[in-house]
Amino acid sequence: MLRIKKLDIFIARQFGLLFLGTFLISQFVLMMQFLWRFVDELIGKGISLEIMAQFFWYMGLMLVPQALPLAILLSSLITFGNLGESSELTAIKAAGISLMQAFRSLIVISVLVCLGSFYFQNYIGPQANLKMSQLLVSMKQKSPELEIPEGIFYDGIPGSNIYVQRKDMQTGMLYGIMIYRMTGSYEDQQIILADSGMLQSTADKHHLLLSLWSGEWFENMQAQELGGSAAVPYQRQTFVSKRLVLDYDGDFNMTDASSFSSDARGKGLSQIFHDKDSLSQVYDSVGHAYFQQAQNRYYAMPQVSSRDSLVAIRKAAAPEVNIDTVFAHLSDDRLRQSLNIALSRVQSQMGELEFQAMITKDADRIIRQHDIEAINKFTLALSCLIFFFIGAPLGAIIRKGGLGIPVIVSVLVFIVYYILDNTGYRMSRGGMWAVWFGKGLAPAVLTPLAIFVTYKANNDSVVFNLDAYRSFFMRLFGLREKRHVFGKEVVISEPEYRKDAVELNRITEEVTAYSHEHSLVSMPNPVKVFFRYEPDHEIERISEEMEAVIDDLSNTRDKVVLTELNHYPIVSVKAHTRPFERKWMNIVAAIVLPLGIFFYLRMWKFRLRLYRDLHVIAETNRRMVARIDEIVPSAKAETSA
Which residues pair with 239 in a beta bridge? Predict the structure, then answer.
């Protein structure tokens, strides 16, 4: 029976407070990102506070499903990072509670958030998307707030372009006015110059009243009145005062919602499936009609009996006519006429086919959009659970709380998710990828990552140990590691100098014999290396004996001995014999030629390095034995024996 324990309540309380804070932060960041996409189109429109409040409300509802995964990722990472940094996670494990048991309360919360996200996307999100799209289009279509700048041409009034040299901000008077009006075609344009003027809006906000004083009016005369003459004269008027009425709609008009009926983002799951079936049926019938039309027009074949042979069918479908002979007997005029007729027919048919292809492509795009939105409701909800199993284990591994490293890790993970998801969405929408592949790309990549970090955290594996990765790459590329032996402050037992001197003399003889016997300087035989390898554990045994002597001599207080110990190289005991332990891996490396050449040259490099190391070991052994003889004179007779 599942029992709620105090530890579950403790972890859930910490997670809940962080989740609420990170959700608000994530929601704010996403809303600002969305707002910046449309700020240029919405600014200066004079939109009321009520409309702006609706805009931000529906924007917030629309972005809730995207903020939930990021909030879970960041809050779970900070929660377990704080527990690890304060050693509370260590105490939990010391009490016999595994990491998965510590996760269980948050797993339940994450599953509930996942289900809530799906419910939100299926019922609340579509209405928010529909209202948001309706508001965006309405706000874009609204005429801008009338604010004519100084010194530049202003085209915010339809059909007019106004230039104002100077304006009085207190009285609203405009000075040095130049107006270009386009009432019809280019020949019908008007140019108005005035010393001063004033622009006012009518009470219904559908027109502007422009009062002008002391100016001139230039207008081209209608070209029709002059019989279509190329040189069109103009008329000029001088006026003391004049009033113009300009069309200007300053009200906010909501766009009809029926224009968004084909948008899949404004539909729930059941409506998506219903509309998809209807669309598929309609567009399948259209495509079938196009196919029958093309077949009857371009590939029509006469009715023939099933008993007729293939030759008879071909002759009936296409009688034998020598086109070249007919073409050669035509006159030049007849030939030119025939070519023009054929070209006209081909162009007409191509235009018709392109129009039909455009309709079918648009139908495929709409159906794909419905499939994308249907799958997106599941993948976006599932990402909440995936992000928890990435954030919580990473927090337990990193053991750093606060908003430093957790924020960096969360941003990196979310960027990877966003790039994969956005790439899959665009490729699926364009038809380059299958919909299930494009929308499943991000979960398919992040799910193995979540399983990996959860497994590593549950087994206390060191994932972010930089020294381990550094050691691996140093071994891979044959980089040398230096030995560091320091004097001990407290020595429990003194070294056995006599025994160590005897061992060093014996090791000197063995390394000298091994160096002469195996000819390490020469290139190894590739066949023996990759296909007929014989085990060689001699260097491994010598290295173990030498390390035992070095470990014993590290207890010395003599500084000369400590210095000589640091001269001993760290020997690679297997890299000079074969690339891999398993025989089949060596064979595969040899078959894959570039890879085999790399490992062969790497092994030869290790053989040359081992040759130098053995000489260094022999020389260091001689100096070490001489120093031991100075420290323990009575050992000289035994070591020489």
Answer: 215
This prediction has a pTM of 0.61
pLDDT single digits (tens) 115-153: 999 999 999 999 998 888 888 877 766 655 556 778 888
Q: What angle do CA 227, 232, 233 make, to 5 degrees?
A: 120
Band of residue 407 on the pLDDT scale cut at 50, 70, 90: confident
How many other CB atoms are there within 10 angstroms of residue 268's CB atom?
18
Tell which wins on pLDDT, 545 or 604. 545
How far is the C-alpha of 387 from the C-alpha of 99, rounded, in Å? 17
Closest CA to 255 of 377, 134, 395: 134
CA angle 413, 424, 69 (to 5 degrees): 35
Answer yes or no: are the C-beta atoms of 381 and 118 closer than 8 Å.
yes
Burial 523-548 (b: 16+ CB within 10 A, else e): ebeeeebbeebeeeebbeebbeebee
Length of the chain: 641
* Residue among 555, 551, 563 nearest 494 (CA): 555
Instruction: Look at residue 183 and tell me whether its pLDDT is greater than 70.
Output: no
**Residue 593, Cβ neighbours under 10 Å: how many?**
9
The three-class DSSP label of residue 149 is coil
